[in-house]
Structure formats: C-alpha cells, structure tokens
Amino acid sequence: MIRRLTDGLPRRALALLLLFAVVMALAPFFVSDYVLSVLIISLYFAFVGQAWNLMLGFAGQLSLGHALFVGIGAYTSAALFTHFGIDPWVGVVAAVALSTLMGCIIGYLGFRFSIRGVYFALLTIAFAEFTGIMVDNSAWLGGSAGLFLPVKNAGSIDLLNLRGPPTLFYYLILILTGGALVLCRFLLNSKLGLYWQAIRDDQEAAEAAGVPLFRYKMIAVAISSALTGVAGVWYAFYYNNLFPESTFATGRSVELILGAVVGGVGTLFGPILGALILTPLGELLTALTSGLQIDGIKTFFWGFCVVAIVLFRPSGVWPWLAGLLKLDGRAR
To answer: What is the CATH number of domain 2-331?
Structure first.
C-alpha cells in the first residue's frame, strides 16, 4: 500500500513532503494563537479545496456550489448535537450520508440530462441557494437568527464531543488534510483515476472507448460531496455558530475553491499550497489596512490573485514551483 502511494515520487519530493509534515505537526508549539488560527483556516480551505479538486481537477465536473455540502454537513451534525446530544462522531455519519445524497441528486439530474460545463455549475449554485432559503425559514435549524452550539469544556479537551482549545481543531484538520491528500493520490493512481482523467480530457473519446461516463462521474461527485460534508462537521464545531446567509452563499463557495485554483487545479499538492498562500496573505492585508476602513479588501486581493494566476501561471503555482524545485513530473 505504502509502496503504491509513493510510486513515482522522487526522493527529493518525499523529503520535502516529510519536512512539511514535521513543520506542520510542530507548528502549535512555536506560533502565537493568532498565527495558529490562520493556519487552522488555511488547512480548512486546503481540505475543502482537495475535495473540490477531486471533482473538477480529476473528473472535469465544475461545481460552484460546494458550500452546499459544507452547509449540509454543518447543520446536520450541529442540529443533532444541539437538540439530541448526539456526539459529532455519530453525527458525521448522518452528515456524510445527506451530503452524498444531495451530491448524487445533483449529479443524477446533471448527468442524466447531459448538463455540462457552466450549466452544471449553475445547477450546483441553484441547489445551494435553494437549500439556504429552506434553512433560513426553518425554526428548528435556527432560521435567520442562526444555530448556536453549546460551548463547554473550552479549556480542556473533550474529544468525544469535539470541545476543546484551538489546538484540538488544528490537529484534527491537519489529519483530515493529510488523509485527503493520501486518498487523492491513491485514487489518481487507480483505474478509477484513469477513467476520470479520460473523461476530463475528452469526454466523447472516453465514451467511444467504452468508459461508462454516468457511473464514474457520479462516483466523483459522491466522494467529493462526502469529503466536503466532513469539512462541514468540523466547521460547525470549530465556529459553534451557523448562519444560512453566510454558510450557503455563492461567495462562500468561491472562497472554498480559490486555493485549488491558485495552487493548481488537477494537481495533488496545489490546493494545499494555494490555501497556505491565499489565507495568510489575505489576513496580513486585512491587518495592514485595518485603520484605512476599506471594505472588501480581502475579496479584492483574492480576485487580483486569480487574475494574476490566469494571466501568468494558468496551470497554478504548484506546477511552476515543482518545476523550479526540479521535482519529477509524476510527483506534480
């Protein structure tokens, strides 16, 4: 298993990956609370970016409504915990099931009726907006006033109920991000990954070659939505409050995918690198301009980064950096 995952990776790539893992694992012991919070959000965007990248970068299916799956996972686990006291380790099962079900519904409607490209993206946006309106009018889910989780044991670690200091959530999202990276590497090197890439590169040619398009595109959507649902559970218990107008907003979906776009769509490490670039720089820019009272400076900066990437590095930062470090092409 390990040999299969590391097959094709040069020693330099393995050494850099190990160094990165060690640095991230030891970071909470050396950084301030504020820097730790920035790293936590960066890893969250990296994890969701990997889930989204699996759908577009590997299988070629564009989604601009991935906040839908975050919201479903977050509200499902938060409601079960708030109303029935069901711990998140059980709630995540329901959250993943509902997120996957919604992803499969969207996929079925889109793929069965041959909705592609930007029209499929609009379908994902429509479902996200529709679900947000439903939650906004649901008193059981808090409605527009928001759903608030009870905060207990904030100073001590309660792993069963995911209550504890930021360090707990840091290591949890770090493990999730590393696990998603391993999963994506495994899937990309499997027969399933080869089918996805064939569909992404030329759907008509893949269909002519006998690839069952509907089945494998549905699998991509199901895995991507399931992973994003897990991110929603983490999101709910980290922030302890949920509001439909922000959780399901199209702007939130765009934020989730920017790391993958900047880092490199279709690459393994690109979503992680992109998130670790955008989030700290955005926070730094916000801090530097806090006295100027400029609204939307972070959004403007992210938009500028995307334009710069499209113009100068259309394949993303990671392929360029990997070439600069003389890493093997298969490692990229």
So the answer is: 1.10.3470
